[in-house]
Specification:
399 residues; homodimer; TIM Barrel; eight-stranded parallel β-sheet; 2 domains; 17 strands; Urease, subunit C, domain 1; alpha/beta
């Protein structure tokens, strides 16, 4: 008995039809008309396009209400309203981080996502319960999807005493990345928060991913402080800024100068392609060589009702937000939702080529751009060479 | 034999479960546990939500490449590039207006759209071929979907001599609405184009729908000229401005003053909720009492690869673009994609209530907002009381 697999008649990255031999969790051969291998299961590809596993590079697995029945949205318009409403409803509604992260992660698996970076709340009320719950999910689903946990001080780091110790404990308890959040807007102490975040990263030898919603010059100010510390701590290539709305500021020269500095410090950007806010532009970042990854952000949670964990649909939203129309540009939007995330998460062997890890999906479409704009159900999803989803659904039942 | 129908166990507008008796193409009764009617077919609703037919209030049925095999996007970035590329590819690719409009309209029917306003090109090259092709579709599909044809001078009205006569001929040949397009940006003759458009409307007794992509103060200038003529010609309630990107200008006071004038002149706005452009804001328009309708714009055509004719998904995009999160706000976004379009098209009896036309759809969702964010396949679609689609697909086969 082996998990090796021979995929017949697939189109790698939308190219010519070929067979694909999967051995020991990797793509061993890609060629037309491969000979049958005794003992190796064959799977008909039906001419479907093979794409590398999608990467959900910014979400909140601990927050989703998926499967809990419809709940009318309650939060007010400000960021603070949403944070406070969430703190209240977390108590009232029993939003169990383990159960809910399992549900959302399996939804992702069904859509062909093979790796997830999730921010997980750490605060003085929830303590490490979120981290522990998602860490259990990470272990349970290790064969289905790679989960990276960002310890995320959602309610503030400096402004909520005790949180810094909890962040330290979260990193000792298995969080993979140090999170941060609007050092001016939430903590009103940019020096304090950013020094603390970089110190935690240094102590634990972990990368950083900071939510930066701050708009315009305020966001630019915080961003410059992050760039400065990235250089000073030798953290090039290990820092991500999520949202980075300030890069959508009207002063395009100022934004492009910031992008040039990000490129020089090898800082990555994570986007949701938020249609209602100024956002970092795909073309600016690509031209400067900044890696852009993408995510769903919260999925049907107390922050809002939207989201379905489909990163092919996210690539469409990224394309629409950036007015990308040419096939090569839409393909780049898809790369942000796959290879970009893999680079940010440091995933080895991501791609569709001999030697790559067999983290991949099959989707029936005429071209890669067609797959993005139509995002039909994934025919098959492999993770480490094993079939983990068929026809849009994870083979593992959600709780 | 009768087309009357008894829908069992549906939830009108997401409310309590009831039965719905359809007689002579109208909703005759809505009440729990209606008695069976001899000779009347019963249809199980399974607790699905019943919504009024969706209205695609801005599209281009003559342009879609749907079903023609994937074609890589060729147009350059400017509006002029897209117009010129389309003129060229229309010749090279045999984009038959009758066949393509039939395909797109049936796609709409499958998604629960019961009325479509389509702009159709009129220019010195295509002549009336587009109008005639879509008019055939309008007649062929009259029992499936109401189609309204806007004679649309895509390549310019004043700047392309001969077009004005063709517009006149198009209106005599059965076009329902007089179209226009960027009177400054395309024709560089706002007085000329707008006087001509309003004169055509007066001569033929037809309403008006003008594409206005012009941004900022340029668009505001053209909009003021449209408002002035709407008043002068007594056209209140019969003029629509499509896109109206200028209402998304940064100067919110200026935009709101324009919105107040639109309200006073009872001018409607049609939006696509374009994520990459400034757009009219749902809340501004609602507060002022301006009717907002919505559409898909072009669907997979030489202008771009996106679109699928699903107006529930469009409601989601409208919600995302406007940062609508509360259920009542998302429900309003859906109303724009349904009741708003019905009002703009002057459709009598649109709605879910006794006496309304039985133009409606059933969708399995927990709430109306859930139906918008998840937009699952439509279980059943009725048009004038007849079943026209099941499980996401029109019962009429596409050519």
């Amino acid at each position: 008995m082996t998990d090796d697999l021979l995929l017949r008649q697939v189109r790698p990255l939308g190219g010519p039809t070929a067979d694909m031999l999967i051995r020991d969790g990797r793509i061993a051969r890609i060629a037309p008309d491969l000979p049958a291998v005794p003992g190796v299961t064959e799977e008909p590809g039906g001419g479907a396009i093979a794409l590398p596993g999608l990467v959900e590079a910014h979400t909140h697995l601990d927050k989703s209400l998926w499967g809990m029945g419809w709940r009318a949205h309650q939060a007010g318009p400000t960021l603070r309203d949403k944070i406070d409403t969430e703190r209240r409803l977390r108590r009232e509604w029993d939003i169990d981080p383990h159960r809910q992260s399992t549900r959302q992660a399996l939804l992702s698996v069904g859509h062909g996502t093979t790796a997830i970076r999730s921010h997980v709340d750490v605060d003085t009320e929830v303590g490490l319960a979120g981290i522990e719950g998602v860490a259990r999910t990470r272990a349970d689903l290790a064969n289905l999807v790679a989960i990276e946990i960002v310890a995320f001080p959602q309610s503030g780091l400096m402004s909520r005493p005790g949180t810094l110790d909890l962040m330290d404990a979260a990193l000792r308890a298995g969080a993979d990345v140090v999170g941060g959040l609007d050092p001016c807007g939430i903590d009103a102490d940019p020096k304090g928060q950013l020094d603390a975040v970089f110190a935690l990263a240094e102590t634990h030898g972990k990368p950083i991913d900071i939510h930066l919603h701050e708009p315009g010059e305020l966001g630019a100010f915080s961003m410059e402080m992050i760039i400065e510390r990235t250089r000073a701590h030798g953290m090039q290539g290990r820092v991500t800024i999520s949202h980075a709305f300030c890069l959508g500021m009207p002063d395009r020269d100022r934004a492009r100068a910031l992008v040039a500095d990000l490129a020089e410090a090898r800082i990555h950007i994570a986007t949701v392609a938020t249609p209602s806010r100024p956002v970092p532009l795909v073309e600016d970042l690509r031209a400067a060589g900044v890696t852009l990854c993408a995510g769903s952000d919260g999925i049907r949670d107390t922050w809002g009702p939207y989201g379905n964990a489909d990163m092919l649909e996210r690539a469409m939203l990224l394309g629409l937000r950036n007015n990308l129309r040419a096939d090569r540009d839409v393909e780049h939007a898809l790369w942000c939702c796959s290879g970009g995330g893999a680079r940010v998460m440091g995933l080895e062997g991501h791609g569709i080529a001999e030697g790559c890890r067999a983290d991949l999906l099959l989707v029936e479409a005429e071209s890669v751009t067609h797959a993005v704009v139509a995002h039909p159900p994934r025919r098959l999803v492999l993770r480490g060479g094993r079939v983990v989803a068929r026809d849009g659904h994870s083979l593992r039942e959600a709780p």
